[in-house]
Structure formats: C-alpha cells, structure tokens
Write a structure and sequence with these properties.
Layout (H helix, E strand, L loop, with lengths): L4 E2 L3 E5 L11 H15 L3 E7 L6 H4 L3 E10 L2 E12 L2 E7 L1 H4 L11 H15 L10 E5 L5 H10 L3 H4 L2 E6 L7 E3 L2 H5 L5 H7 E3 L2 E3 H8 L2 E4 L2 H6 L3 H4 L3 H6 L4 E3 L27 H14 L9 E5 L8 H12 L4 E5 L4 H13 L4 E4 L4 H10 L2 E4 L9 H7 L3 E5 L2 H6 L13 E3 L4 H17 L1 H12 L5 H15 L3 E2 L5
Parallel strand pairs: 1-20, 2-3, 2-7, 3-6, 7-8, 8-12, 12-13, 14-15, 14-17, 15-16, 17-18, 18-19
Antiparallel strand pairs: 4-5, 5-6, 9-11, 10-11
Helix pairs in contact: 1-21, 4-5, 5-9, 13-16, 14-15, 14-19
C-alpha cells in the first residue's frame, strides 16, 4: 500500500451548466455552489462546462485562453479550445467549440444533442492533461450530458500515467433524463472502436443510453438524497435503470444538496420588504401582511397562507392541488401559487383565482423577486410532489420560517421532520401517499396547529430556521466520498 501524503484533493467537476455563467435549473446551482464549498473545505477544484454563446460578454471578457487542440470524433477532427476564469477559489474551464455550443436558443433541445454532449464528454477527458499544474484525483460528472466521460476515460485513457490516478464519481440529479439516442451516434462519438462499451450501453434495439454507460463505468455513484438513492432501485423511480442501481447499490450514495445560506437569509435579503431572524420574528408578520396586499388576498393574520413556487407539472403534484383546492379554500385557507408549466394546470389555477377572490391567487409567471416575498410572507409552503430527487424549495422555505408541507418522497422525506404533537419535534408536516384527500388532511392539520397552538407554531418555525442546509455540510460528505477513492491522500484541513 502506498504511503499517505498530505496535500489537497484535486477534483474536476464536470457539468453542462454552472451558475452564474449558465443556468436552466438546479444543476446550474449545484455546479456553481458545491465546488466553492469544496474549495473552502480544503480541496483544489476545477469546473468544466461548455462555452455557450449565451454566456454574458462580461464573463467572456474575463476568460483567459489556456490552449487548444483537436479531438478525434469518429471519422473527423473537431476543434476544442480551453478558456479559464478563476472565481472564489475555483478554476472554471470552458470547453470552446462554436459549432456545438454557439447556438441562438437555449442550452439543450437541439437535434444533435447526442453528438454535442458526446463531444463535451470526450473534451472533458482529453482536457485533463492540459489543466495547468493540475493532476486530477477525481473526475466528478453530473447527469447524462457528461455521462460518456467515465466511458471514454476507462476505454481510451486507462494506462496513461496522467490518467491512472483518476477515479470517477457520477451524480444522478434526475433519472428521468438519461440521454437516449439512436445508435448511429456511436460512430460520430468515436465509440465504435470500443465494442465492450457499446454492448453495455444499449437499452433497446438501435438505442443507446448515455447515463447507463456512466452507471456501469464510474467508480462511485451519487444522487441528491438518501431516500432517492433507495427509490432509484425500484421500477417506478428507476426509469428503466433500476436493475443497474440494484446491481451497484454498494457504490450508490445519497447526499442532500445545499442552499446558499448567505444570499437566502431573511435577516439580510433585500428582496423581502421586512427583514427578520430566528431571534426576532416580528418582520415575518409584516411580510405576510405585505404579501396579502400585493396579491389581492384578504389582509387577515389569522387566515393561514399556503404558498407554492413551482413548475406546474404532474411531477410537482398539481393533480393533487387541483383536487384539493375547493376543500381548502372552503375552510378559510388562503393559497398563492407562482409558476408556469402545463397549460391545463395554468388554466385550472386561473379558474380558482377567478372564483375565490381574496382567498386564491395564481400568478402564472416567473418572478424571482415575488418568489422571495412568498417564501418570507407565507405561513406554509406546499410541495406534494409525485417524486422529488432532492428539492430546494422546502430548504428555502424552512430558512425563512415558512413551514413546508411535503409528500414523503426523495429529498422531501430526508429534509423535513414531521411535527410530533407529543414531543414538539418537527420542522414541517408530511403525508405518505400520492392522494388528494391525504394532502388536504395534512394541510388542515397544519392549519389546526396554526390556529390553536401559537407557541407550538413558533417553536416549529425556529426549529425549521435552525436547520443547517449549507453547502458546507454537503461538501464535507462529498469529500468523504472522494477520500474513499484516494485513501493515500490526507487533506490538510481535515487531519
């Protein structure tokens, strides 16, 4: 066994998006926040992401050209440039190829996405040798867009001195999106010369699955909550990959995402009208009154205000919401919903808004400022999700003393402790089954505590606000994961 050495673990974090440069959802937040927390905890971290045409010019102007080279993609060679920005102790590297990434629309959804992200995955692995003074210990890939990188690494780079030290971690943020393409992409990706890889990536006749390749080839697997890690091993949640998750359960770990507790702080948040803290909650009542006025709801402190900030989709439990609104609104509950999504849900919410003036408000829009005011001003936050790998809204709502009401699935189950009336424990309320009546019962039980036991309600708010969902917690758990792959390295900050 090799002698232990004391130095920083060197992590390359690969993601198709990274805030603040690019972001379409939670993955961008993770790639923007987790690497910074890893660096603060004593790792050396490089993030690799595409240089999209949509990146703001102010960031492009800061980029330093590191190098360029050509990648063999099947029958042709493709240019690949490497640009760098250093920010908050993290080196961000941008994979430059205008043919693949300088598009007028969004980041994804193009006819050649399979080829684009095969190129990105191969560029990640090839670029490891060009990072200045950076010999990677761990390549941490995220979701299907980077899923071929562990395959390329094992099939084409194993045995090269620089790469022999590299271990791989693959994170599944949502197993519903796997990167399935016709097998003709194997030619353009340059994988036909690796028959072992090809045989393991087929998921149907003439169809290959990028995520399947990563699940088989990566050293360790992670996902965004312990419960979701267990759920992935079942047919409903595994989305056809449950057999592989069961086979690799010893390598599968669940680590809850964090939130930016500095910006998401009710004591300092400039987006809320009245600041408050766990020690002085007076401003929260003022935020509720201001929100009721803003949304045209009856201004009444004794009417419980339930908020939702969400995509209006089946996954987010909108079927249950449609079913239960009549019952809830008939019991003096106020409901406010912010979001966009499926047209049927949007129209349904507009109908309830029209019918229950003063009690119901549906804002069919994306409004970041309003979302913050809703987190601060509501009494409860409803998340009746069909499935939820991690979820961030319940973490934010607890940070603001707004008690979450969640279905016990994925990260919702892991992060929300249901109220126990006998012990006083809890940080919110939960129900088990995807059932409209059960959801309504849970909401009304929460309202009963709100109406009849103000002391218990205040205790629950403070217990929720006292939870630590910072990225520091998640980063330390990931470092434990990385360290298990490199027991010979002792981090200087961790002993």
């Amino acid at each position: 066994m090799s002698a232990k050495v004391r130095r920083k673990l060197r992590i390359v974090f690969a993601s198709a998006e990274a805030a603040p440069f690019t972001k379409t959802g939670g993955l961008g937040d993770v790639a923007g926040s987790l690497p910074k927390a890893l660096a603060a905890a004593g790792c050396r971290v490089a993030v690799m992401t595409p240089k999209y045409g949509s990146i703001k010019q102010e960031y492009v102007d800061r980029m330093e050209h590191v190098c360029d080279f050509y990648l063999n993609m099947g029958w042709r060679s493709e240019y690949c440039g490497l640009e760098r920005i250093v920010s908050d102790g993290v080196e961000f590297y941008f994979i430059d190829n205008e043919h693949f990434f300088k598009r007028d629309g969004g980041l994804y959804g193009y006819f050649d996405d399979g080829e684009r992200f095969a190129f990105f995955s191969k560029a990640i692995t090839e670029s490891l040798q060009y990072l200045p003074d950076f010999r990677a210990d761990v390549l941490h890939c995220n979701d299907w867009q980077t899923a071929l990188a562990p395959v390329f690494l094992r099939e084409y780079y194993q045995g090269l001195p620089l790469y022999d030290n590299v271990r791989t971690v693959f994170s599944v943020h949502n197993a519903k999106f796997q990167g399935q393409y016709g097998d003709s992409v194997l030619d353009t990706a340059g994988l036909l010369s690796a028959p072992k890889a090809v045989s393991q990536m087929y998921c149907a006749p003439k169809t290959v699955n990028y995520m399947q390749g990563a699940l088989i080839y990566s050293d360790l697997l992670s996902t965004v909550s312990p419960t979701y890690a267990q759920e992935l091993k079942t047919p409903f949640f595994g989305e056809g990959l449950d057999g592989i998750f069961r086979q690799r359960e010893g390598a599968l770990h669940g680590i809850v995402n964090g939130i930016d507790v500095d910006s998401l702080n009710p004591a300092t948040d400039p987006a809320v009208p009245f600041n408050y803290s766990i020690d002085d909650m007076a401003g929260k009542a003022a935020c509720k009154e201001a929100l009721q006025r803003e949304l045209g709801l009856e201004v009444n402190a004794e009417r419980p205000l339930v908020a939702m900030v969400t995509r209006l989709t089946k996954q987010k439990g909108l079927d249950l919401v449609q079913y239960g609104l009549e019952r809830l609104l008939g019991r003096s509950v106020q409901v406010a919903v912010l979001g966009t999504g499926d047209r049927a849900y949007e129209d349904s919410l507009r109908y309830f808004d029209w019918k229950y003036k003063g009690s119901m408000r549906a804002v069919i829009d994306f409004d970041l400022g309003l979302s913050q005011r809703m987190y601060a001003g509501a009494d409860m936050f409803l998340m009746p999700s069909l499935f939820e790998p991690c979820g961030l809204s319940q973490l934010i709502s607890m940070r603001y003393g707004t008690l979450p009401i969640v279905r016990e699935t994925g990260g919702l189950k892991d992060t929300v402790t249901p109220y126990n009336r006998y012990t006083g424990e809890g940080t919110g309320f939960s129900f088990a089954n995807f059932n409209g009546e059960e959801m309504c019962d849970c909401v009304l039980n929460a309202c009963e505590v709100f109406w009849t036991d103000k002391q218990a309600w205040s205790s629950l708010q403070r217990q929720a606000m006292g939870q630590d969902f910072s990225w520091t917690v998640a980063a330390n758990r990931y470092i434990d994961l990385y360290s298990s792959l490199h027991p010979e390295v002792i981090s200087p900050d961790r002993g």
